[in-house]
Amino acid sequence: GYWEKQPGMDIPYSKDVTDLHQNAEKIRCLRENVGLVVRDYNLIITSLTKNEQKLFQERIFHLDRKVQPGLTKFTWAQRIPIVMQYVKDCRKYCREVYQTVKTFKANNEHINKNCLSMASELLVKIQRKRVYDDGEFEQLQAEHRAHVQSLLERSHREITEVLLKSKEIFKQDSSEVQGEWLAYCSSIDASIEESLRLMVKKSLQEIARAINGDSKADAAPLFKVNVLLDDNRVSLQPSTQALSQMVTKIAQELITVIKVVPRVTTTTQQAPTPAPVDGDEEQPEEQPVAAEPF
Length: 294
What we know:
The protein contains 10 helices and 2 strands. By secondary structure, the protein is mostly helical. The chain has a two-stranded antiparallel sheet with strand order 1-2.
């Protein structure tokens, strides 16, 4: 090299340094692939919340053991084929774990969408500027509640099915992970309960707004009342008392609709795990986690 040609420069020979120099390009590629392992690992960890990391603690533990030799055993002076094989094994395991994480996150997103769908529903259907005849309002609300009830049952069924799929991921894990799974199901129950609470609250507010009006608009006629004159006596048909009782009954029946939604903590323990249908079974994608393949 340059310094060897300079007068008075006596550079001692080192086989290790020479080997590093001769394998500079291979070591550069190795360094890039080691960086990809770090990137894959970090992507798995950062994509999980603290509670989700508790669910995946066994997979993270095995992942740590897989990566550990690179932190304590291998050096840059190691034979490059051995280290490259280690890197390939690490990235393969990272792909498997990340694919499982993606499946779990997709299932969780599907559950959240169903919870939002529940919260967006109304248990009453009141058309603006419409005056309802005697008995008509009550009948229409009963039909609408039946429709919403079927939607709630469908959303709950989808949530249960998705949870059972996620349960398969952890069914062979330790008792500690099973405890975390129950805690996760309890958190889903809390989300569903909050969605149902918001739905009932908005429905009651809708009834109150239709009868009493609000700050944006005055109350509009809602029920048709006939005025009857009988023996010089004026009466209303239906009476205000009957209308009040009818509205109160409808408000009370709103609560009965949500009884079709049991707690998933119970249903996922009782329901059998659905068997995969031929052709529908998902296969893990043979793709790198977040980088280019070797």
